[in-house]
Structure formats: C-alpha cells, structure tokens
Amino acid sequence: RWKQRREEERIRRGGASASDAAILYARMLDSLKSKGVEKPAWLTPREFARTLGASPSRPYVDEATEAYHEWRHGGRVEAAARMLDALGGLEESLR
To answer: Which residue of 1, 43, 62, 73 is most buried, as measured by CB atoms within 10 A?
Structure first.
C-alpha cells in the first residue's frame, strides 16, 4: 500500500508515463475482479465498461476508461489525475 501511494504521488506531481496508464488500468481490473467482475480479453476497454450496465461502479469505470485512453493513447498526461480519482472512487465503492 505504501508503494502504491508513493507511485500515485509521483503521477500526480507530473511524473507520469504512458505505461503508468496501463498499470492503473490493470489495477482497476484487479479491483473489479476481486468482486467477481472480469473483463474478457476480446472486449475493448470501452466495450467492457458498457457491460457493467447500471452498476454503481459504472461511472468510475467510464471515467477511468476515458482518462486511460486520453493518457495512454492521446499522450494527455493531465488525464492521469482524473484516472487516479476515478480509481480511488471505484475502490471506495467496492469496499
């Protein structure tokens, strides 16, 4: 948990790379998997988010997914903070 917080601080300070987006997306998938929700390999991130329907997790997954795409594929590092916020909200909602 300490290492995770340190990484989050580094990302928030602007030390984020595109590979960090993939790491955070995997963390999101791990959080969902712990509650029995798994992403099939053949679904894109956006397709997967749509499969969640009206789940309370859906807004967080939608936001994290959009931020992931902007950051990872669009090079918009400013989306990193949004992804972290969405991931924090998701993890809190799953507790």
So the answer is: 62
Write down the pLDDT at residue 15.
74
How far is it, in rounded angstroms, from Cα 29 to Cα 81? 18
Burial environment of residue 75 by CB neighbours within 10 A (0 to 12, 13 to 18, 19 or more): exposed
DSSP of the chain, one letter per residue? -HHHHHHHHHHHTT---HHHHHHHHHHHHHHHHTTT----TTS-HHHHHHTTTT-TTHHHHHHHHHHHHHHHTT--TTHHHHHHHHHHHHHHHH-
Instruction: Please list, residue by residue across 9-18, b when 16 or more beta carbons sit within 10 angstroms of its beta carbon and e when fewer do.
Output: eebeeeebee
Per-residue pLDDT of the chain (95 residues; tens, 9 = 90+): 777 778 878 777 777 788 889 989 999 999 999 999 999 999 999 999 999 988 899 999 999 999 999 999 998 888 999 999 999 999 999 98
